[in-house]
Amino acid sequence: MASSKKKRQSHVNSDSQISNSIANIFTGSQPDRTGAEGHFVEGSIIRLVMKNFLTYDYSVVHPGPNLNMIVGANGTGKSSIVCAICLSLAGKTAILGRGDKVGLYVKRGCHKGFIEIELYKSGGNVVINREIHVENNQSLWMLNGRHCNQKAVEEEVKALQIQVGNLCQFLPQEKVGEFAKMSKIELLEATEKSVGPPEMYAYHCELKNFRNRERELENVVKEKTSFLEKTKQRNERNKHDVNRYYEKKRHLDVIELLEKKKPWVEYETTRKELEGAKKERDEAKKQLSALKQAQAPMLRKIQLIENQLKPTDAQIKDKTAAIKEASLKCKQKQDQLDRKHKEIDDIKQTQRLKQMEEEDHQKRISNTRRTIDDLKAELAKIGDQPDVTPQINAINVELRQIREERAKIEGEKADLRREKDNIYAESIMLETKLTNMNNLMNAKELKLRARHRDTHTALQWLRQNRQLFGGHVHEPMMLVINVRDHRFAKFVETHISFHDLRAFVFQRKDDMEMFMTEVRDKMNLKVNSISAPEESCSERLPSRKIESLRRFGFFTYLREMFDAPDEVMSYLCHQYKVHDVPVGNDQTKAMIKTVIEEPYLKVLYTTEERYTLKRSHYSNKISTSNSAVNPSQYLTITVDAEEKRQLEQQMKTCELKLREIDERLKALQAEAVALDRRDNELLAEKKHLSEVKGKKRQLEQKISTKQDSLKQMEQSVIDLQKIEEETKEKIAAVNSQKVTIVAAFIAQMKLRAKLTMEKVYLALETVGLMAEKTKLENDCREGASELKATDQRCSRLEHRKVQLIEQCKGLMKRAKSICRMQHDESLTEELRKAFSELPDTLDEIDAMLNEERSRAECFTGLSESVVDEYNRREQEIKHMEKELEDKSNALNSYRQNISEAKERWLYPLKQLVEQINVKFSDFFRSMQCAGEVDLHSENEEEYDKYGIRIRVKFHSSTQLHELTAYHQSGGERSVSTMLYLMALQELNRCPFRVVDEINQGMDPVNERRVFDIVVRTACKETTSQYFFITPKLLQNLQYAEEMTVLCVHNGCQMLPPNQWDEKAFIKRCLQRKAKA
């Protein structure tokens, strides 16, 4: 048995001590450490030294080789031993779930801490030293007395098969709940690493890599096979196109030869045609010369007559021009006469219009007189009538009253409209504020949905089925908690766990049970629910008024930072003591050493940190832990519930006022319509009376107007006699002008007749000469026609000869160009031979060309690239076939490797799981429960999906259910976790296991059963070292000789380590027991 104690501290920090004792102290036997190391497994912990580490000033722990029971009250430093083991073995701080910086594990007030661990190893133990510096969060490492880096320590730890990151081997207090949250795959990997052969996990990883590579190769082979098949099919289709291409090429070669020969045949044909044209042209020239000699005498006579006709033609032209001029002057005089006739007609027309105007004037005078007589008769009929003026005045008074009433109504309507507009604007503003608040609530709901979809699904179900519940049911806390200032959200969110933030709060337990049955059991949703305390705690008073703490910088309690429904606040006060958690500022941080000495403070907050204070029940010493306050993620969105309620009430008030105003406006509109109707009736009556009163006056005015008009018309009479005399004078003047024009017209007519006779004489003389000329021309017309035709023929033949010469030159040049010959080069023998096998006439060549072209055109859509593509693809097919063969061989090789690796891994794994299952089932059976462990996989070939499934049953009325973080209670999960670890314990591959306070939450019956199993299993000689940390033990438990009990005490009366006498302590214990 080994013992150690902490150094004595000042009165501020109480001392602590660890004492080791064997269970047989209580049975009366003496400890025996002779050959103790012979029972240690390689890698077991022989010694652990802590200096300035968490709650310890200095302490040395000597655990036993089997079960080590570490017992002590809360806050004495049990979990500090677990932290020391983890950090001394190069474990990460995240494994412990406490502070994220290693400097936080140094005792408060010290600049550095020290831990040392000695591990058993045959041939020489391994000693690891770690010195932790607070200032820079750095560590200095030593391995077996030599300085080294952390990597060397990690490799040494790995060689001893120690895995502090494996929950199956190392389960600290803060990670107990995470074991049940491990997936089947994670549990399998942790089990392989913990109890499987060293190569098992490597085989598993190798299998997963092989399977991934196999999938890749399968996909590659499949893709290449598919691509090769498509390529072959495509090339097979192209093969027909290649054959057609070569057939088309043969036709094109024949066409090329025909096109080469055709210009030579055209040249020869044109050359022969040129020779014939030359002969024909020479004969035509001889015939033309003979005809010209025969026509010469008659042509001379015709020329003489033509010379005589020229002067006569000139005189005829002069006479024609003079006649034309005389005719023009005659026409001008005729036009002048026509204008004078029209002028006389206009004068007569003007006279007729004046006569008609006078007749119409007389008719109007007569009509006006008749109208005056009629109006006078009507005026006489009217006579005397009563005066309607009093009636009109009475109507005017009533109309003024109606207008005043209408003005009042319109004023009231305008006031109501203005009031309505103001209220409507206010309602729009209120609606906008409510919408903004609802949008903030929606944003919080979206965050919940993103973080935990099951809770959001359950929330939707709750909103649709609220009528099923008898009491109040509140949505998840994060939706109903409203932080008054977003700066305080981080404190509230740090203080309340996320599991509770997403929990539904029920006023009644039966409602909660019904809700969980629906959403958890039927809908298979992972949700949390809470039943509020039966007696409300929301109004609990804090242990001290905040005014007494203001000198330390505290300004409020956590409860005052947020609003929540009564049931939610009651639960938070009961569970989290939010009414008694003060929040301070930077001043609090500066005075923290003084603050933590204040009584009644258990949890407090500064600006950036949370402090948890624990006071020892034995020494009254205070131990503290602190952690950073993280920024808020969910509660920064704040909605003032009271303001929202007031806004909703104001909205209802506005809607009521708007309805009242609309009803009043309808009533006023009805009154206005009635007044308009009466106003129209009075106006119609007034109009009738006004017409009666003004009719006599209107008649008198009309008579007077008509009489004035009659006087004016009688004064403006037209003098017809005077107008007739003026008309006669104008006509006489126009006739005098007409006489002068007629005289000039007759003179021009005589001149034109004289010139016409002279022209006729000259024309007769011309006709005689023309007759003689016509006779001579008729005599020589036949010869001249033949001469002309011969001359034209000669011209055509000459032109044809020139064309044929140029055509022959062009054809020769074109023929040599097509055959790619030089200017002075002749046809090759090869071409002559090829031409000899082709037709010799143009018609035959054209016919053959058309036939060959038609055949070639049948092969459409073909090009030389088709052949190139075909040949290239043939080479690709050969290359792909070779590559596919290589990949297929590689795939077969991988499948063979997988088969071998699977055989190496799966069979031992099944045996291992079966061994675990046998132990696990036995343990559960001994507790009158049922449990199974099996290897689970949906597809045997998916090696990354294999996992270990734990199924348990704690009640005879239920079925086996898979162990999850949600289905079983906390105690049931703890029992299952503990028994699984014990099932692993006997397989004994890892050097030691650590389980910290796993029995918390178990009922006494299960705790006793589990303890018996732990003692019975961990104390076997075949098992490895086991650390079981617990703050309490039940009475009358069964202990074993092989177990070691490490009692952790603290207090100001503890002895220093150098004064601790283990033998004297045992002797006194035995003496007290004997006296008892």
Main pleated sheet: 7 strands, mixed
Radius of gyration: 65 Å
Average predicted confidence as pLDDT = 78
Kindly report the spatial arrangement of strands forming the biggest sheet.
1-2-26-5-25-24-10
- Report the total helices: 24
Q: Could you explain the architecture of this structure?
A:
InterPro entries: P-loop_NTPase, RecF/RecN/SMC_N. Residues 45-1033 form the RecF/RecN/SMC N-terminal domain. It is found in: Chromosome, Telomere; Nucleus. This is Structural maintenance of chromosomes protein 5. Residues 267-426, 644-730, 863-904 form a coiled coil. Helix 7 packs across helix 17 (641-715). Strands 1-2-26-5-25-24-10 form a seven-stranded mixed beta sheet. A six-stranded antiparallel beta sheet has the order 4-3-6-7-8-9, covered by helices on one side. Strand 22 and strand 23 (961-962) form a beta hairpin. By secondary structure, it is of the alpha+beta class. The two termini are 25 Å apart. Among the domains are: 37-166 and 994-1075, P-loop containing nucleotide triphosphate hydrolases (Rossmann fold, 3-Layer(aba) Sandwich), CATH 3.40.50.300; 482-634, no CATH class.
Keywords:
1076 residues, alpha+beta, Rossmann fold, 7-stranded mixed beta sheet, 24 helices, 26 strands, disordered N terminus
Summarize the structure.
The protein is an alpha+beta fold and 1076 residues long. It is built from 24 helices and 26 strands. Among the domains are: 37-166 and 994-1075, Rossmann fold (3-Layer(aba) Sandwich), CATH 3.40.50.300; 482-634, no CATH class.
